[in-house]
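Dear V.,

Thank you for sending over the compound details. I've combined the ligand you provided, adenosine-5'-diphosphate, with the protein sequence from our construct and run the structure prediction for the complex. I'm sharing the raw inputs here so there's no ambiguity about protonation or stereochemistry in the SMILES, which I know was a concern on your side last time.
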Amino acid sequence: MLKAIVTVMLKKGIFDPQGRAVQNGLESVGFENIKGVRVGKQLEIDLAMDDLESANDLVHKMCDKMLANPVVESYSFVIKEV
Amino acid sequence: MLKAIVTVMLKKGIFDPQGRAVQNGLESVGFENIKGVRVGKQLEIDLAMDDLESANDLVHKMCDKMLANPVVESYSFVIKEV
Amino acid sequence: MNWGVLLFPGSNCAEDCFHVIDKVLGKPVTYLWHKDTDLGDVDAIIIPGGFSYGDHLRPGAIAHLSPAMSAVKEFAEKGGLVIGICNGFQILTEARMLPGSLLQNRGLKFLCQDQTLKVDNIETPFTSEYKTDDVLVFPIAHNEGNYYAKPETIAEMEQNGQVLFRYCNPEGEISDVTNPNGSINNIAGIINRTGNVVGMMPHPERSSDNVLGLSDGKGVFISMLKYLEANKQN
Amino acid sequence: MAEKLWIKAGLTDSEYELLTKHMEREPNTVELALYAQMWSEHCGYTHTRPLFKHFLTTGPRIVQGPGENAGIVDIDDDEVLTFKLESHNHPSAIAPFQGAATGVGGIVRDILAMGAYPIASLNSLHFGYPGDAGHTRWLISEVVHGIGEYGNCLGVPTVGGELRFADAYKGNPLVNAMCVGYMKKSEIKKAIATGVGNSLMIVGNLTGRDGMGGASFASKDLDEENEEDRGAIQVGDPFMEKLLIEACLEVFEEDYVVGVQDMGAAGILSSSVETASKAGNGVEIDVALVPKREEAMRPEEVMISESQERMLLIVRKGMEDKVNKIFHKWDLHAVVIGHVTDDGIYRVLENGKTVGEVPVWSLMDAPTYVLEGKEPAHLEQTRRFMNDDVAVPEDLNQVLLQLLGAPDICSKEWVYRQYDHRVQMNTVVKPGSDAAILRIKDRDKAVGVTMDSNGRYCYLNPKRGAQSVVYESARNQVVSGAEPIAITDGLNFGNPENPEVYYQLEQSIIGLSEACRALDTPVIGGNASLYNQTPEFGAIYPTPIIGMVGLVKSLSHVTTMDFKNTGDFILVIGETKEELGASEYLDQIHGLITGDVPELDLDLEQKTQQFILDIIRQGLVQSAHDISDGGMAIAIAESCITSELGAEVSFDLNLRPDALLFGESQTRFMLSASGESADKIIEIAAKQGIEAANIGRVTAHKRLSINNLEKNLINITIEDCAQAFNTGFDKMMKTDA
Ligand SMILES: Nc1ncnc2c1ncn2[C@@H]1O[C@H](COP(=O)(O)OP(=O)(O)O)[C@@H](O)[C@H]1O
Ligand SMILES: [Mg+2]
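Below is the predicted structure of the protein with adenosine-5'-diphosphate bound, written out as C-alpha cells.
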C-alpha cells in the first residue's frame, strides 16, 4: 500500500484572497511577524499498489488530468509506503 | 525567515464528502487502485523570525486558536528555513 | 430550433434554463445527460449553473471530464452554439474551451444579488439584441466568479472583442468599486475566438421571465435564436 | 444489570422499570440503546407531547396534520404544499458550520420524504450580542455559511428567515431551519411500512459513527460533561442530498414504494420503528447488510448512527431491482437491509442472528411527563414597569437612527446575500420585505413564507408573547397579499424540569394555540428543542418560532413594503396606544428588558387582518408593511429606505412622543395608496369599525418628517436612515465586507 500526498497551491503571482483573509484574521487576534499566508489543498490518496515508480506516474497523470488546473494552480506530491 | 507548512485535515472517522467525490471522480475517468481519498487544507505561512523553537510555539497557538477547529479537524505542521 | 440543456449530477439551474426555452421562447428543448456521447440533433447547448459534482475539488473540475463534454467540444468545433452559465462557465474553462479560470470571489463569500452589467461586444450570436449603452440587470449567484487569465491572454481577448459582459454600477460605470468579485477588468462573460462558445457568471435565464420582475436576460436567448434561424435558412 | 447502565444511557430508574415490564425481562445492551434513543425527549417528545393537545390541527385546507414527516396544506388546483421546521441548536453551538448545514439537510429530507420537491428554505437564528466576543461573530458567520452552502448547492432557494439577538442566547444559540415543498395531491407519500414481506431499503450515504446518540445528546443541557459527546459531529454532503432528491423523486413516479421516511435523529432505528408502528407491523433489520463507512461497528451503533443524507424506503416485494436501477443512474445504490414482518416485533439481526427484539409499540410509547409549572420570578417585577419609569429622550432623530442600526432591526443583507434566493426561478418577492413570495409556475397564484419569533416578548409574557408571534407572522403574510393557511412551530426552551421553564413552555403553547384558533391557521407540524441552557449563561428566552405559509390567490395581489409613488397617501391602520413595555426601544435605548407585552384583542386582530387582505385584493393598496419591532417610526423609515422616497406625516395623538414613534402596540399596519383609494380604504375601515388614519404623503425630496400635534418629532434625511440601517450589521460584526 502506498499513500500519495498531493499539494495543490495557487500559482505564485496569483492573488490568494483566502490567504490574505487568514493573515488578517491571525493579525487581528494579535499574532505578529506574519509576512504572508497562502492557502491551498492537500489530498491524501491511498493506492493499492506497491511499485513506487508506477505510482509516481499515476499520480502525475491524476494531477494533470483532474487534481490541479494548470492555468492557475501548481502541484507537488510525495509518495510514502504505509 | 521561516516558513511554516500547516496541514489541516478532517479527523479520522469524520466523514469527508469531498474526498469521496474526488475518489469517484478519479475512478469515473478510469483511474484504478484508489483505496481512499481525503482532502484537507495546506497553509504556507511566512514568518519574519529565525528561532525555530519560538516559531514552533507560535504556529501551535495559531492552529489551536484559528487555523483548525479541534472539534472536527486535526493539524500538523513542519517549519522550514527559507 | 432544438435546444439542449446538459445535465450533470449537481446541476441545479437546468430546469430554469429549460423553463425559459420552453415557456418564454416557446422552442423545443431537451435535457442532455452527462454520460451520453450522442447529443441528438440539437442546434444550441446550454450548460447550466449549479454545483456539478458538489463543486468538489474545483467547480467544474470533475464535470469537464464527462463523456458528454467531449461531444460538446466536437459540437463546438463544428460551429455549434454553446453557452455556459455560472457553473457552466466554470466547466467550459476547465475544459479549456474558454481561456482563463474562475477563482474564489475576493470577498470570500457566496454572492447572490441583482447585478448591473454592460455589453461590450454586440456583434456576436449571443448579444445582437443589445445596445452598447444598455445597463442590464442579471442576477448573480456564485462563490467562484472571480475571472482570471494571464495578462497576455487578457490583452489578446480585449483586442479580439472577446469580452462580452462587464460588471458595472446602475449608472453604467465600470470600475473596481463596481466589481462584485474581483474579476480582471470587471469581466462577467467572455466568448471564444471563433465566436460560438460563451461563458458568463451572471444568470440570463433568471432575468427572462417577467413575473420575476427582471427581463433583460431574454436578449441572450433571443439573439441566439435569431442567429440560428438566420443560419438555418441559408 | 449490576451497574446502572440505563442511567448512563439517559434513562431514569422508573423508565428502566417500565421498559423491563414491557419486555417482561431485562434488556441487553442493544435493546437498552433502542429504548434510550426512542424515549429521549428529542424522539419521544416526553415533555411536550401532553401539551400538544391544545393545538388546532385540522381545517378545510389541511390535508395532513402532525404525525407525518411534515404537514400538508391544500393550495387549490389539486396542488399541495408540505412544510416543517426543525432545530439544530446543539450541533450548531459546537460545530456551527456543519451543525447548521446538516440542519438544513435534515429538514429538506423531511420534505422529500413526503414526496415533494423542496421549493424554499428559511431559517431562524438567535445569537448573543457579539460585542467584543470573537466567538459569537465566528458562530454567526459559520452558521450563515453552513446554511448558505448547503442550500445553494442543493439548488433550493433560501428565501427568508430571521436573525435576532439577546444575551440569553450567548451560551446556546438557536438554529432552526424550515423547508417548504410542492407537489400534486396525487404524489403524496407516507411514512408507513405496510405489506408483510416488503423490503426496507436504505439509500444515500454510507453509515458511520457520526452523530452517535445525537437524539439523546439534544435532550441534555449543553455543559462541560457533554464535551465528550463532541464525537457526535455530523458532516453534511449537499451533493449527495441533491442526488437523493433527484433519485427519490424519480423512484416515486413509479409505484414501487409504499412508504418513505428520512433518517434524522436516531437514524435507522427511529425511521423504521415509526413506519412499522404506523402500519401495526413488525420489522427485522440485519445490521450486517447496512453499507458502512467504518469498521467493527456494534449493532446498536449502526441502528442509531446519524450519518446524514440517508433515507429509508419501504419497497414492494419484487421491485427492489427496479428501485436500485434508478438509484444507480444517479451513481447511488439502494440496499435491502430488512423486511416488514407481521409479528409486531422490532427485531435486530446481525448476520442472521437475533441480537435484540422488543415490541414495536413499546418503543413508540415513551413515557410522558406532565409537570407543575411555576410563574417565573422575574415577571412579578417586570410587570410593574410603568412608562413613567423612563424619560423621553431629547434627540428623537438620534433614537431613530440608533434603532434602525440595532441588531434586531438593521438590514440582514449581509446574511441573505450569501444565500441563493433566486434559484428555481419562483422568487417573486425576495428577502428583505415582509414575507418572501414564490410563484407557482404556470398558475396565477403564489405562496408566502415566513419565520418569526420574539424571545423577549415570550420572556416577559409567555402566553401573550407567543400569541403576538403568531399574529406577527400572519401580519407579514397579509401585507404581502397572502392569506395565512397554517403554521409549523419550533418550541425552543430551557430545561423543562425547571418549573419556571415548564411554565414558559406550557403558557407559550397555550398562547400559540389560541392565536392559531383565532386566525384559523392550524398547526400542522413542528419540532421541540428543550434543554437549551448552559451553566454559565442559564436558560435561553422561551422562544417559540413560527413558520407560516400563506396563499396569494392571484399574482396581482403581491404587495411589498416599499413606497411606490410620490404623492401617494400614507395610512395607518389600527390604534396606537401608550405602550412601551417589552419594546425594542426600551431594550436598545434604555437598556431595559421589562414591562408587559402590548395588549392584544383576538377578534380585532382577525378582523383587521381580513380587512388588509380585502383591500389589497381590491387593488387599493400600493405598499403595505406591518408595524412591529421598533414601532411606527421604524415602519415608515423602512418603507422610505427600500423605495428611496421620503415621507411627510403628522399625527394628532395625545401620546408620549416615544410611545407614538417607537411603541409596539399590536394590530397595526402602514399602507400607501393613491388619493382616491385612500379615501375608499378609510371608508371601508369605518364601516367595519377599524381605526384608519391618513397621516401624510410620500414625497420626492428624500426626507422623513414626523409631526405630532403640530410639533416636529423627526426630521431626517433618508440617506442617514439608510446609512444606519445598512451598516448596522457590519458594525456589529466589525467587518466592512
Ligand atoms: N412543536 C410541535 N408542534 C406540532 N407538532 C409537532 C411538534 N413537534 C413535533 N411535532 C410533530 O411530531 C411528529 C414527529 O416529529 P419529529 O420526531 O420531529 O419528526 P422527524 O423525526 O421527522 O423530524 C411530526 O409530525 C411533527 O410535525
Ligand atoms: Mg422526519
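A first observation: Residues D 69, 110, 113, 262, 264 surround magnesium ion (ligand 2) (CB under 6 Å).

Warm regards,
I. M.
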